[in-house]
C-alpha cells in the first residue's frame, strides 16, 4: 500500500510539473530579455541569422499558413513606413511544421518565389524558432528586437491601426538609439 501512495504522489508531482512547464511555454518572452538566436533560410536558400543583425532593429512576424493574410497586413504596414530605412530589418518567419511531408520543399520555395511576400519570408521547417519564441497559432506573434539583441516589444494580435501604432512607437524609439 505505501508503494501505491508513493506512485500516486509521484504522478501528481509529474503532472503538476508538466502543467507548469506547458503554461511557461505559452507565456511570451519577456521584454528586456535576450531574443533567441535563429539561423533560417528564405525561399532562395539565402541564410539569415539574428546574430548578424546586431546594430539594427529587427521586427519578427511569426505566423503560419492559416494566418498568412494577417502576417502580410503587418508586413505591408511595416514596409510602407520603413522600406527605405537601412537601420531596420523585417522578417516573416513561417512555421512550416504543418506542411505535409509528401509536399516537396522545392515546390513550396518555387511558389514563394512567384508570389513574393511583402518582406523576406524565412522558412522554419522544424518549428524550432517558433518554439524558442513561444508563439501561438491563432494570431501573428510580433517581436521587436533592439540593436543589442534584446526584446523591446511583443504583441500577439491580428492587425489593427491601434496595435500597429504601438509597434511603430517602440520601433521608432529603438531606431533613434542607433548611432549613424
Write a brief caption for the model:
The protein is α/β, with parallel strands linked by helices and 180 residues long. It contains five helices and seven strands, in the order H-E-E-E-H-E-H-E-H-E-E-H. The protein has two domains: 1-30; 31-176, Glutaredoxin, CATH 3.40.30.
List the helices and strands and how they pair.
Blueprint: H1 2-26, E1 39-42, E2 47-49, E3 57-63, H2 68-82, E4 88-95, H3 105-114, E5 120-124, H4 128-132, E6 141-145, E7 151-156, H5 161-176
Parallel strand pairs: 3-4, 4-5
Antiparallel strand pairs: 1-2, 1-5, 3-6, 6-7
Structure overview:
The chain is α/β, with parallel strands linked by helices. Helix content is 39%, strand content 21%. It has two domains: 30 residues; 146 residues, Glutaredoxin, CATH 3.40.30. It starts with a helix and ends with a helix.
Q: Keywords for this structure?
A:
180 residues, alpha/beta, Glutaredoxin, 21% strand
Amino acid at each position: 500500500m505505501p508503494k501505491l501512495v508513493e506512485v500516486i504522489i509521484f504522478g501528481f508531482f509529474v503532472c503538476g510539473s508538466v502543467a507548469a512547464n506547458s503554461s511557461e511555454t505559452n507565456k511570451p518572452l519577456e521584454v528586456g530579455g535576450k531574443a533567441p538566436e535563429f539561423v533560417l533560410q528564405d525561399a532562395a536558400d539565402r541564410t539569415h541569422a539574428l546574430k548578424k543583425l546586431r546594430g539594427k532593429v529587427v521586427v519578427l512576424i511569426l505566423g503560419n499558413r492559416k494566418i498568412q493574410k494577417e502576417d502580410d497586413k503587418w508586413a505591408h504596414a511595416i514596409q510602407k513606413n520603413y522600406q527605405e530605412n537601412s537601420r531596420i530589418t523585417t522578417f516573416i518567419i513561417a512555421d512550416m511544421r504543418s506542411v505535409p511531408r509528401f509536399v516537396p520543399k522545392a515546390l513550396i520555395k518555387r511558389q514563394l518565389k512567384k508570389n513574393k511576400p511583402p518582406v523576406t519570408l524565412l522558412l522554419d521547417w522544424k518549428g524550432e524558432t517558433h518554439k524558442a519564441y513561444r508563439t501561438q497559432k491563432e494570431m501573428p506573434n510580433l517581436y521587436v528586437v533592439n540593436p543589442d539583441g534584446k526584446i523591446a516589444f511583443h504583441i500577439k494580435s491580428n492587425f489593427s491601426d491601434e496595435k500597429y501604432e504601438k509597434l511603430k512607437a517602440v520601433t521608432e524609439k529603438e531606431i533613434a538609439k542607433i548611432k549613424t
